[in-house]
Amino acid sequence: MKDIDSNLVKDLQKIILDSYEEALKLNRNVRNKELNDIVTDVDIFMETKIIEKIKEWFPEHSIYSEEKGEMIENSDYVWFIDPINGTINFAAGIPLFSTSIALKKKDETIFGLVIDYSQKDIYYAFAGKGAYCNEKRLEVSNNDKLSNSILSFCLTSHYKEKKNENTNSY
User: Fold this and answer.
1) Could you tell me which of 98, 124, 106 has the C-alpha nearest to residue 6?
2) Among the four residues 53, 72, 76, 115, which has the most C-beta atoms within 10 Å?
3) Which of the two residues, 35 and 145, has the higher pLDDT score?
């Protein structure tokens, strides 16, 4: 079994970037999934490749992925995979999307990885060991005033009108 360490970041990065390059040769084949959400062949292809590798490295771990749903192995470890986080942007040719992966052990998230394709940045973090961007440790801002902060959020594509009634926008 593979260790959950910085080598895992490099190995996952290679698998993800290789599968992304290979998937770009496919027809995107955009189709509706549910409510206002879509899926492409790139999502499916990448998710399949990532799951295959995780199952090879950690055969006893459970997996929850955006397109395939749950693959329960009755494990304390659960991987969460979104192969194209921002599929609507990806399908529209807007370069604001990523691949996101997280690993939980019981109720604690112990690892996370995000590949930002537009900036070519790799973000990752291990519980208790800090967060990194391209191997450079990230620092928390010293700002202690909300008025001096920038806040951003995105409503998911599978929103329900009733839930949005309480959301104000300017």
Assistant:
1) 124
2) 115
3) 145
Q: Is the pLDDT of residue 170 over 80?
A: no
* 58 token code pair: 């950690």
For the chain, the C-alpha Rg in angstroms (whole number) is: 17
Averaged pLDDT, 127-144: 91
Is 148 strand, coil or helix? helix
The residue type of 42 is V
Is-contact 155 169, C-beta < 8 A? no
DSSP readout, 28-97?
---EEEETTEEE-HHHHHHHHHHHHHHHHH-TT-EEEETTTEEE----SEEEEEEEEETHHHHHHT-S--
Are 23 and 45 in contact by the 8 Å Cβ rule? The answer is: yes
Strand, helix or coil at 139? Answer: coil
Q: Which of 56, 112, 58 is nearest to 85 (CA)?
A: 112
